[in-house]
Amino acid sequence: MARGDVGNGMMLRAKSNPYEKYMPGGMDDSNGFKESLTQYGQAGDVYRHILFFGGGTLTRANPVLWEAERIDRKQAEGGRKESITELEDDRAGRRVGGLMDQAFDGKFNRNGLRDALRKELCK
What we know:
- The chain is mainly α.
- It has one domain.
- The protein has 5 helices and no strands.
- It has helices spanning 3-16, 45-59, 62-77, 81-104, 110-121.
- The protein is globular and about 40 Å long.
- The N and C termini lie far apart (30 Å).
- The mean pLDDT is 91.
């Protein structure tokens, strides 16, 4: 499968965010994610940002990502605490996309990518 196809699929999945309901520890639990990715009520929306920015990185959709990040930054500057976490999720999503890019280029095998993603996202 081509990286653009994977990226587009990730962005589409982010739009519906079906994973949000799979936060078994509830909205106040990081559920294995780094606290910085789920704090201030972000909880399951971490999935939306990671998938959207990771997929956008793979598809090279930089103008779309810049606009989404601009909106999150504006909200954070306006005092919305959850947007502070959204910006961290945006950055983590870009890093996830970068790691996946490297895997497509053969710099990681499946296990190496898994380990790198865990290091990036998990406690």
